[in-house]
Amino acid sequence: MFRDITLGQYYPANSAVHRLDPRTKILLTIFYIVGVFFIKTYFSYAVTILFLTSVILISKIPVLSVLKSIRGILFLVLFASVLNLFFVSSGEVLFESWITPRWVFRITMDGVHYSIKLTLRLILLVTGASLLTFTTTPVELTDGMESLMSPLKLIKVPVHDIAVIMSIALRFIPTLLDETNKIMNAQKARGASFDTGGIVKRAKALLPILIPLFVSSFRRADELAFAMNARCYNATDKRTKMKELKFSLKDLIALILVLAFLTVVFLDRYYFMGIDSLLFPGVLRCAIL
Fold this sequence. Notes:
By secondary structure, this protein is mainly alpha-helical. It has two domains: 1-158 and 244-289, no CATH class; 161-234, no CATH class. The protein is built from eleven helices and two strands, in the order H-H-H-H-E-E-H-H-H-H-H-H-H. It has helices spanning 22-38, 42-59, 63-71, 74-87, 109-135, 138-148, 159-189, 199-205, 207-230, 249-270, 273-288; strands spanning 93-98, 104-108. A two-stranded antiparallel ribbon has the order 1-2. Strand 1 and strand 2 (104-108) form a beta hairpin.
């Protein structure tokens, strides 16, 4: 059930994406997410899919491993798409049926466009964000976030503590998911059922999972605190790092490529929307009809 969640999982490989500075990857991920929210046309979606596919191939991560991140939000994607398909009433009517004298069931061309674009946007967001954890270890993420947030130290913000907390949270997500699967399998072996009955019955069936999971989480947190204390860990500003972060030429090239992608998205949104209106809607209408 929880094996499809890929957040926090690292895939070791020797690729150009893995060797990028973690600060660069964090910034590029933020730029990519901003660019996806500005996408408005099918042409930009096609460019984004091509760009994301190229990054996945360069990173040497199996495509199936990346697609697993989509399966975790499949229900949300389908639910949001159906809502847009049935409740957007503007545009050319493709199908219409009167259920009651006051309520009509209508599917329009705009509703189809909104549903397709929303589905693509959610898939691109989750897939692109998952590449950050696939190609960056929790330690590198901690160092990268701490370095990017270092200006906040001027106003006495505990930057190192925040970075360590976020790193530990990412590190233990796969561990907690494995623990949840083990508890569920143990409860199923005792005759528990999580897939039958109504919503209330299924919610009650989760109690035998949540209680031992909380107990296990607190126990792990306590053990981690003792382990850090035994190793004389302290969050002082004078801590040194074994590997110093350095911005190199490959980081500059990656930054230029992502900025070029953002430029194409912005230009297509504000200046060249006519290309999209000429090509993609006509193809889509032929496919639907």
